[in-house]
Amino acid sequence: MTSLPMERLRKEFGDRLMENEPLAKYTSARIGGPADALLIVQSADDLAQVVTELWAMDVPFKIMGGGSNILVSDAGVRGVVLLNKARKVVFNQEDVPPTVTAESGSNFGALARQAAQKDLSGLEWAAGIPGTVGGAVVGNAGAHGGDISSSLVMADILQRDNGRQNWTPDQFVFRYRGSILKEKVGSAVVLSATFQLSHGEPEAINKKLEDFLVYRRRTQPPGASMGSMFKNPPDDHAGRLIDAAGLKGTRSGEAEISDVHANFFINHGGASAQDVYALICQAQRAVLEKFGVDLELEIELFGEWAAETH
């Protein structure tokens, strides 16, 4: 049962408010129950306004972008989910060095490919990343030796207590696949971000980008997944540990630990969130027992989960 002030939400947002909205269709894994309420935001200013109104009502909310790197529980999400479609992108090619500013709902991989098309280098490493700019900033996304912390110039941040500010990279206290914003869930949101680029030779840029995409296609499985399930432990790889624990190809219902890359869990069609969660717990138990390594989730769990410990 929801405890949301639904009448107040209906009055505030009118027809924009989608009630009891299934979330599976908005996620890359095609898994998840309904949100009590869902709102679609179309710009950074719209996101800022809606978030400010929800804070004023003391209504809890979650933000979804492309729906990757999250697992929504079968019971769904109590509270409001904001589907972030703020996707305006501006390339500042006359800046020295050139930059690009993208709203937080922009697809980060597509942004890297757009930069390459303009003969701008610096984001090739991100060409295969499926998530949004906002999620990438919060999680310090990275690949192929590059990451957000080394590319970000500044970001437009809205905080519940301090309003709207431009943050420099130092203010994020970036770490491996994380930032201070990851600890401030519900109290701060990324509205847009600006990244540093450089002018380059088209052939070299496109070759680097294509090499990274080919590597990704060769090493990561196709199909409906959430992306990398666990963070890599220091000096090791989560996929290697899960594989060495003998779990490649293990299934729970229609969910499977991929036999291509063991840090990817695939929905073969009809998998439940609990199926995936059972595999998460099984992998954590097996790796802890065999190697003494406690695997930490890279994805975010949305909603309520059965008390299954690892």
What this model shows, in words?
The chain folds into three domains: 79 residues, 2-Layer Sandwich (Uridine Diphospho-n-acetylenolpyruvylglucosamine Reductase, domain 2), CATH 3.30.43.10; 130 residues, Uridine Diphospho-n-acetylenolpyruvylglucosamine Reductase, domain 3 (2-Layer Sandwich); 80 residues, Uridine Diphospho-n-acetylenolpyruvylglucosamine Reductase, domain 1. It contains eight helices and 19 strands. It has a five-stranded antiparallel β-sheet. The mean pLDDT is 93.
Short description:
The chain has helices at residues 6-13, 44-57, 108-117, 133-138, 148-151, 202-219, 238-244, 273-291; strands spanning 18-22, 34-41, 61-64, 70-72, 77-84, 89-92, 99-103, 120-121, 142-143, 146-147, 152-159, 163-167, 188-196, 198-199, 224-225, 251-252, 255-257, 265-267, 300-302. The protein has 310 residues and is α+β, with helices and mostly antiparallel strands.
Main attributes of the structure:
four-stranded mixed β-sheet; 28% helix; five-stranded antiparallel β-sheet; alpha+beta; globular; Uridine Diphospho-n-acetylenolpyruvylglucosamine Reductase, domain 2; 310 residues; 3 domains; single chain; Uridine Diphospho-n-acetylenolpyruvylglucosamine Reductase, domain 3; Uridine Diphospho-n-acetylenolpyruvylglucosamine Reductase, domain 1
The biggest sheet amounts to:
5 strands, antiparallel
Order of strands side by side in the largest beta sheet?
Answer: 6-7-13-11-12
What is the number of helices? 8
- The dominant shape is globular
CATH C-level of the largest domain? Alpha Beta
Q: Radius of gyration over alpha carbons?
A: 20 Å
The CATH topology of the largest domain is given as Uridine Diphospho-n-acetylenolpyruvylglucosamine Reductase, domain 3
SSE string: HEEHEEEEEHEHEEHEEEEHEHEEEHE
**What is the CATH architecture descriptor of the largest domain?**
2-Layer Sandwich
Contiguous low-pLDDT stretches (5 residues minimum) are none
